[in-house]
Amino acid sequence: MANETKSSVISPIVTIGALFFIFGFVTWANSTLIPFLKLACGLKTDLEAFLVTFASYIAYFFLALPSSWILKKLGFKNGLVIGLIILGVGSLVFIPAASSRSFGLFLTGIFIQGAALSLLQTASNPYISIIGPIESAAKRISIMGVCNKFAGIIVPIIMGTLFLKNASGIEAKINDAATTVAEKEALLTEVLGRVYTPYIVLAIVFVAFALFIKYSNLPEVDVDKEEVIEGEEIKTVKTSIFQFPHLFLGAFCIFVYVAAEVMAGDIIGVYGKELGISADISKYFTTLTLTSMLVGYFIGIFTIPKYITQQAALKICAITGVIFVSAAYFTDGYTSVIFVGLLGLANSLMWPAIFPLGIKGLGKFTKTGSAIMIMGIAGGAIWPLIYGYLKDYAGMHFQLAFFVSVLPCYLYIWYFSAYGHRVGKHA
Questions:
Q1: What whole-number percentage of the chain has pLDDT above 90?
Q2: Cβ(160)–Cβ(32) under 8 Å?
Q3: Are 270 and 102 in contact (CB under 8 A)?
Q4: I need a labelling partner for 275 at 20 to 30 A (CA). Which of 162, 335, 341, 368 fits?
C-alpha cells in the first residue's frame, strides 16, 4: 500500500468512511430504542431496557473471532458484502417484532445487527489502520470517527422525532387510570407502527451498499506479513498470539472504553430523565455527547501525529474523562448533563489511539488480534447493566451509580496509555 497513489488511497478511505457512517447510525440508534422500547413494550425498569445495549454489544464478544475466520476464508470484500446483508436481515426482524409487540424479538433483531457489525468492524478497523503508516493510524481512524459520530449526531434527531414524538404525553395517557385497555392498546399499536418504514428503508440501503461494494474496486491489503518495526531488531519470530500481552491489555482497554462511551452516549437520556428533565428534551441528549466526540475527532485529525503522539492523546483523554465524570457527580440539573455530554470529548480519541496501539507489531497475527480487540466492544453490553443494577436494585443514587460505574474505566485507560501499550514489546 506504500506505493499506492494518493487518489487510489482516497477511494477506499471514502468507502470505509461510508461504512463507519452506517456503523454509527445502527449503533447509536440504541439511545432512542432504549426509551422507545421501554414505553412501547411496557418495561418496568431501566435495567430491562438496557438489554437493548446488551443485545447489541454482546454480539461482538461471540462473533469477532468467527468473523476473523470468515474474512480469512472469503476475503475482505466478500466479508463486507455478507456483513451488510446480515445487517439488512436484522433490520427486517424489527417488522414482526413490532407486529407482535415482542421485546424478545426486538432484542433478536438487535443481536443480528450486532453480529453483522462485528464482521464489518473486524474487517474495517485493521484495514484503515494499516492502509498507511501505523504512526498516523489514529489520524485515519479519527476521520472514520467523524463519519461514525456524524451519523450518531443525526440519529437521535431522526429516530427521536420518528419514534418518541409526544413520548411524555403518550406515557402519561398509558399510566392514567382513566385510560381504558382498548385506548392503551391503540396507543401502543400506533407507537410500534412507527418502526415499519424506517427499518424497511434501512434494510434496502444496506443491501444496496452491499451490491456497490461487491462491484467496486476496493483493494485488498496484506495484513499477514511480519511487520518491521523501525529502529528495532526483531530477535525472534512470534509463534503465538499469546506472545503479545499488549494486545490483551489493549482489548480490555477497548472493553472499558466502549463501556464509558455507551454510558455517556446511550445512557445520557435516561440520566437526564432521572434529573427530572422531560423525555421530549432528554431524547436529544445523545446528540450533545456525539457532537463533543466530533470536536475531539477534528482535533485528532489536525494534531496526530504532527504535534502529539497517539499515546499522549490517549493519556490526555483519560485524565479529561476522570475530571468530567467527577464534575457530573458533584453538579446537578443541566450542568450535570452537560458534563456527561462532554465525556464525548474525552472519549473521542480513545478508539483511534487504542486500536492501533493494540495491534501494533502483530504481523501475521493482525487479523486474529483485530478480532480480539473487537471482542472488547462487549464492554458496552455489560456496563449499562451494572449501572442499572446499582440504581434499580442496590438502592444507589443514580448519580453515584454513574460515577462508580464510569470512573474505573478512565483510570484503566490512563494506565494503558502510560504503560500497558508497551508491555511485552521488547521481550
A1: 51
A2: yes
A3: no
A4: 162
Q: Which residues contact 337 (CB under 8 A, 6 or more apart)?
A: 268, 271, 272, 275, 277, 285, 288, 328
Listed residue (398, 22, 401, 395) closest to 208, CA to CA? 22
DSSP 201-242: HHHHHHHHHHHHHHTS-PPP---SSPPPPTT----S----GG
pLDDT tens digits for range 281-315: 988 899 999 899 989 888 888 887 788 887 899 99
> pLDDT confidence of 93, banded at 50, 70, 90?
very high
Number of other CB atoms surrounding residue 124 within 10 Å: 25
Report the distance separating Cα 35 and Cα 24, nearest Å.
19
Q: Cα–chain-centroid distance for residue 311?
A: 21
For residue 80, with 0-12 CB atoms within 10 Å meaning exposed, 13-18 middle and 19 or more buried, which class applies?
buried
293-320: b or e for each residue (b if 16 or more CB lie within 10 Å)? bbebbebbbebbbeebebbbbbbbbbbb
Nearest to 202 by CA among 125, 64, 108, 93: 93
In 3D, which of 328, 350, 349, 331 has the Cα closest to residue 340?
Answer: 328
Q: For residues 107 and 57, is the Cβ–Cβ distance under 8 A?
A: no
Cβ pair 416, 317 in contact under 8 A: no
Cα angle: 121, vertex 290, 120; to 5 degrees: 10
